[in-house]
Amino acid sequence: MRFETSPGEQAQVDFGSLAYRTADGKERRAWAFVMVLSWSRSMYVEFVSRPTTETFIRCHLNAFAKFGGIPGTCLYDNTKLVVLSRDVTGAPVWNRQFLDLALRLGFDIRLCRPYRAQTKGRVESGIKYVKHNFWPGARFTDLDELNRQVLAWIDTVADVRVHGTTFERPVDRLPVERAHLTPLPGPERLRVPFSVRRSPWGATATYGGSERGTVCPGPGSPDRRFSSKPAATWCRCGPAMSCWPFIPRLRRPVSV
Length: 256
Fold this sequence. Notes:
Blueprint: E1 10-21, E2 27-37, E3 43-48, H1 53-67, E4 73-76, E5 83-86, E6 92-94, H2 96-105, E7 108-111, H3 121-134, H4 143-158, H5 170-178, E8 192-199, E9 202-207, E10 210-212, H6 222-225, E11 231-235
Parallel strand pairs: 1-4, 4-7
Antiparallel strand pairs: 1-2, 2-3, 5-6, 8-9, 8-11, 9-10
């Protein structure tokens, strides 16, 4: 039985792995981050070299920016990018960096039951569509070029086709769904105070007394603007950079 959602209620998210050969004949893999809005079936795709927590967070922010807002819930399988393990009671042990993002932006995390990936059938179908429709014709020299191509493909092919389930074009349904999405936070909410301490082994960022092993790598970050002396500043990278591990968690329930 198909579960239908209301506009703005849910997005489904997953990674797909795709193989290609370089000019010298070596086989490589690119990872396609795919997010599908469940009601409109509008999709966002971004290719990355590795599915890390930092790229996962960046892809979410880029997807929300493209859609024009944030859905109420995002549905995932049990990837360690979201949930590291289960405790003795079966409750999720969350990836804290990703949980910070969800709480900061105000969307709920929902997990598929283990070994029940078909629960997120919309994004599974989306990944297959990327593999069978876009990927065979893709020719690129780097990921930037590949991502420009896939965004053009979404705008000219994926989102303008008549969907086989809704019998409407995703591009026509997206404005209706966008009206039900939560607006992205403004730049002021994305500014995060932290201090940086350097050592021979690298830089350590501190937020609220808790040390993190990396610092924000973006333009204007303390890693670029300050000497070896400790300094406090504001991160101004905005929603496209990987400074989210430093953002304090807000107290909001998370659905499972």
